Protein: Chorismate synthase
Amino acid sequence: MSGSTFGRWFAVTNFGESHGPAIGCVIDGCPPGLALSAEDIQPDLDRRKPGTSRHVTQRQEADRVEILSGVYEGVTTGTPIALLIRNEDQRSKDYGNLLDTFRPGHADYTYWRKYGLRDPRGGGRSSARLTAPMVAAGAVAKKWLRERYGTEVRGCMVQLGDVEIPVDDWSQTAQNPFFAASTSALPMLESAMDQLRKSGDSVGAKLRVEAQNVPAGWGAPLFDKLDAQIAYAMMGINAVKGVEIGDGFGVVTQRGSLHGDEIHPGGFASNHAGGVLGGISSGQDLVVTLAIKPTSSIRLEKSSIDRSGASTTVVTHGRHDPCVGIRATPIAEAMLALVLMDAALQQRAQGADVELPVPAVPGLHL
Amino acid sequence: MSGSTFGRWFAVTNFGESHGPAIGCVIDGCPPGLALSAEDIQPDLDRRKPGTSRHVTQRQEADRVEILSGVYEGVTTGTPIALLIRNEDQRSKDYGNLLDTFRPGHADYTYWRKYGLRDPRGGGRSSARLTAPMVAAGAVAKKWLRERYGTEVRGCMVQLGDVEIPVDDWSQTAQNPFFAASTSALPMLESAMDQLRKSGDSVGAKLRVEAQNVPAGWGAPLFDKLDAQIAYAMMGINAVKGVEIGDGFGVVTQRGSLHGDEIHPGGFASNHAGGVLGGISSGQDLVVTLAIKPTSSIRLEKSSIDRSGASTTVVTHGRHDPCVGIRATPIAEAMLALVLMDAALQQRAQGADVELPVPAVPGLHL
Amino acid sequence: MSGSTFGRWFAVTNFGESHGPAIGCVIDGCPPGLALSAEDIQPDLDRRKPGTSRHVTQRQEADRVEILSGVYEGVTTGTPIALLIRNEDQRSKDYGNLLDTFRPGHADYTYWRKYGLRDPRGGGRSSARLTAPMVAAGAVAKKWLRERYGTEVRGCMVQLGDVEIPVDDWSQTAQNPFFAASTSALPMLESAMDQLRKSGDSVGAKLRVEAQNVPAGWGAPLFDKLDAQIAYAMMGINAVKGVEIGDGFGVVTQRGSLHGDEIHPGGFASNHAGGVLGGISSGQDLVVTLAIKPTSSIRLEKSSIDRSGASTTVVTHGRHDPCVGIRATPIAEAMLALVLMDAALQQRAQGADVELPVPAVPGLHL
Amino acid sequence: MSGSTFGRWFAVTNFGESHGPAIGCVIDGCPPGLALSAEDIQPDLDRRKPGTSRHVTQRQEADRVEILSGVYEGVTTGTPIALLIRNEDQRSKDYGNLLDTFRPGHADYTYWRKYGLRDPRGGGRSSARLTAPMVAAGAVAKKWLRERYGTEVRGCMVQLGDVEIPVDDWSQTAQNPFFAASTSALPMLESAMDQLRKSGDSVGAKLRVEAQNVPAGWGAPLFDKLDAQIAYAMMGINAVKGVEIGDGFGVVTQRGSLHGDEIHPGGFASNHAGGVLGGISSGQDLVVTLAIKPTSSIRLEKSSIDRSGASTTVVTHGRHDPCVGIRATPIAEAMLALVLMDAALQQRAQGADVELPVPAVPGLHL
Structure:
């Protein structure tokens, strides 16, 4: 493979560029018998799409998904599911010197070094727009996981710049534009974003994604550990610079006497591990944290060079997210669902196919 | 694949258990013409092996590597390179109740849930001992990368528990048991470890690994981004709970005006990105940080259950590392080298095969 | 993967069903810099499409290909190339009892056993219509191979039922509906087909595909031998039941003194091997032969069962090829091109990157 | 991957050269809970090993297999199973000019073109000796398939040169050195081989391999069709030049009215398809035929060139099989078992997981 297919069993092949005629993906490996229609996919696409609040890019994209194959009479057939999203807002704007300039923080320079040429329109292949097909594929995985195992994936923002956001009410994530699981921080978030837009600058963010009711036994040692696959999935999301499982970097100063989660007949006593031991799910909640860098496209001038190697400056006008982290929550959820889907199928094929002598230890829902 | 093969082009298939007759790996995809002998591999194995100082496990393993195939007259032939390491110290000790007990923080419970049975001797397949073949494979990758591209991979410990370790002299990493790139912290590290051993407890650590002289253009979007593959490789190392690229979680509070590395004709002005833009190497130093949890095997009693689901307690005697992070530095170096090797071959096959109009921008060596 | 992706480096993921909204594929791994437009692809699609003569199905499909991604300003960018073909002739005909009946010789029964359900419209996923996207992908591979290595792929029919077709003038393959490389057999082919249509029966065929100017050194031992990959590709084409390389089954009665192709400084003296030795191309012409079974859909009544297991009979009316082998020539060419493309990229990554001491031995063009 | 791993789920990675210290393989993906010891593997290795009769090479190799990992207390653990076979008979003979000469019919020239160098000792990596680890891995697959599904794989020789061998008593295959399923042809086979050895020449052969009690539903469209994977596996065996499924090349002259196997409530009425429809197993016997070329190493002089490109002649003395087809039967059985094992795991993960409304149609045992 050449990097555009995610997953081994539930394999999602992604295609498209920001300003091409269309983007989409092909899912190969979805088990047959899952009731599926565009209506199952569209809600997650709508959560990710631009223009939903003043705090995100005002680019207009309906992001309507079309199912081209793999579904017959409303049910998956086990054959590839092709999902197509037509690009609409391909504004033929004046790119100024951007076509020849390597924008700081962007992939302009590296794509050009890799391929010897690049599609500069809106970042081409490197645009975060290419996460939309993954959100669509993730919605299929979410539905299958929910129906087969009761597994639920959810995410929220826990920090935006200097504003820390408590996690005290998950129901709130659907009620505000920040995917904040709390109402207390909303005023600070609103004002912080308003100042940010005025300044023309951008800021980073921290997100948390979780999965509940993950059966114990998912994940394949040595290298396809569940946490390794999660790290691969999350670090592959545009702008992500750090990934943690469970206590993450907090373990550096921990003692083993604290970190090791004790087990009682009634269940685990804590979840420092974040739901994974030895790369295999323990039945506890999966807890993942990720760091997202500030948007590279800002209105403030930065120095760079053009393709001839000469000095130039870059100022990005137009429609950009002051904090790409805001729209990343549904993306991170989708990627986590895709990892779990793959692990579930791997376990069906190669895990124990005998009944275990005692039931699983109940996980701890923190 | 089922999780025991790392890499697509330079594919390393790992086998073995802690107390089985042997461990090893098969490297498929090493280009022909590389001068290679066991002497090229042994030094890295010796850096990782136990018993080298009082601060690590006293388990005795020579970890002598034997090359079984793929080399003829001292040169790689392009065919699979099989590396074998015989296990020597398979102490048939009294495991007490450990065979039936799920040790907190270990993979005992999860392996048993996944497979319905497990090899409990020394952790079986989940033992960190299985990183030895990867260190051996990584030594092959390091040599090829150095000879073809001048790429150098190095690592050091930057924090042990509460003791932060400055990075001021890389030459020191070979002079102390902690892989510390400084002499200033050594007294604190020695005393911290001595107290730790007395206490019977364990502690976490933070490591940094870097690669210099990485050509621009390595890494395959969308999913096989270089940083995504690094995250996958690092999180797959035993006990790792967090991975950062460049500024990592520091980006959460950064502004875009700071984070985006400016480019001048003479080179990049900073390296907040850590050598990767859009998942593709920029030619700057790759900078990776990882968090390693405290050793789960400690002499302090913890609660758990046995296979019947009944309550029990666990106290681990015997020979364990009070800080597994100490011996993890050569492992992290090896995994980074394996990721780069794979990316180098991918670029040879699928990258630009034309001369680019201007030379690469020189990277910044911080 | 789950079977819908062909190739490791030049990876083609196929999707769609015979009567769904669209069929297509995503090519991941095409090197950048190849000039490409729909006009480069359409001619091969037109060679395969139905309705081109009275000897093939009269189903009407324009099979117009749309390039959705991977091409910018007329040149491939190195990112995935998505190719879309909308289905037009989805005649909502009366399927009679076909929806519940397992047609003899078809995949109806086996798909139903595999998936527990199936899309019965026109064979759904098992329809030969799904070869169209491969012909499109093959056209991309053909163009790249021709431009980089001068490699040419060609095919012809060498037998239709009892009518053997000599290979004496390759230029004729474009001049007749049978892809016959000769004019001498045309009258017999015409009359044989006319009688066949009257009878309501179908017949098998034998095809030959060749590749010229294949560089020596392509193919990866042990399992991805070039001939093994060719066999995989050809046997995967609908209705193929046999594959031969070089002398094929003729070797059973041969002596080694005859079979082993002697080598002279001026070149090989013969090509019994068909261009492959030890699974690696020798620089001689690749010669492949395949056997294609008679069309399973015929107007003559056959016995079968329905989904309840009860006896029934099947008579297939409507538009079917009396000899599916006729339209299979461009398909076989495309699959051979895809195998070669993959092998070429593999060799770029993992073969010798040094100049060999003497030039390759010239191959023999028989 | 680079060609040395066979299978996706039951992935067998092969290593070694003919005259290196050892050969072997690593099986990744074997389900846990299979009782396994070297005694389960050795019998098939003994069927393949040299020196068992005067009609095969007299090279002496005990081919004793050692299980290095993946088995604990006599049962597979689900982790990689490493199998090691030490090379014993590495006769340091006088290779004469063979080290510099490209032997006609061998891989000498093509390996050298691919890699720029080669291990010439006994053919190095291209030696049929590398099939031994596959026979060992196949024995593991055979045992699992037999225990889980009652699937049985068997093979026999059906033609040696001009001598056709009837298939009338499968029990005889273990009673004669030719794997002939009949006693009637033995005298002719004996005399044919004796004459052949005197002449210093070699001859080709045709083999049949079958699998019984293969559940319907195995095989993954579009490309991983069961027959496509079988063709890939068989053509990958040294010296194989042709593969047929069911009636194979016989279909060229067949009519559809004959070929399509009718289905009755009691079962299929015939098995022209050879057990596969649309690339998916039908529950009927899998029937595969393969053509094996005459041994390239003969005592008769042939012309070739050396590495300088100069003319030379080759005469192969020493210990070679006058008909490599004789020892190929257990190899073909093993490869078929490996294909089925992979397909079984694929179906467990991605096939129907619901009970089908009616039982499978019984297959036809011809």
